[in-house]
Amino acid sequence: xxxxxxxxxxxxxxxxxxxxxxxxxxxxxxxxxxxxxxxxxxxxxxxxxxxxxxxxxxxxxxxxxxxxxxxxxxxxxxxxxxxxxxxxxxxxxxxxxxxxxxxx
Length: 104
What we know:
By secondary structure, the chain is α+β, with helices and mostly antiparallel strands. About 20% of the residues lie in helices and about 15% in strands.
C-alpha cells in the first residue's frame, strides 16, 4: 500500500523471509498504519532469490523495532538528526602555571 500521493511510507524494516515481511505488513495495516512490501536487493548481489524483504510503513519506530526483533531483522534509520561536529582545541590547555610565570 502506497501513500495517497504515490510515495513510499517513511520508515523501513528489513527482514529475510517474505512470509515474515507479509505478516509484519498485515499487522501494521490491521493497526491502522500504511505498509508496503518489496524485495530489497543489496549492492553486488546477483542471486534474485536471496534478497531480503523490506516493509515500508508510517508506523512509529518502536513498532518496527519490535517486529524486527521478533523476525530477526533490522530497522533502517534515515531520518536520524545530524549533530554538528564539536570544536576541538588547536593547542594543549595549560592547567597549572602559565608558561611565562617562573617556578618557585
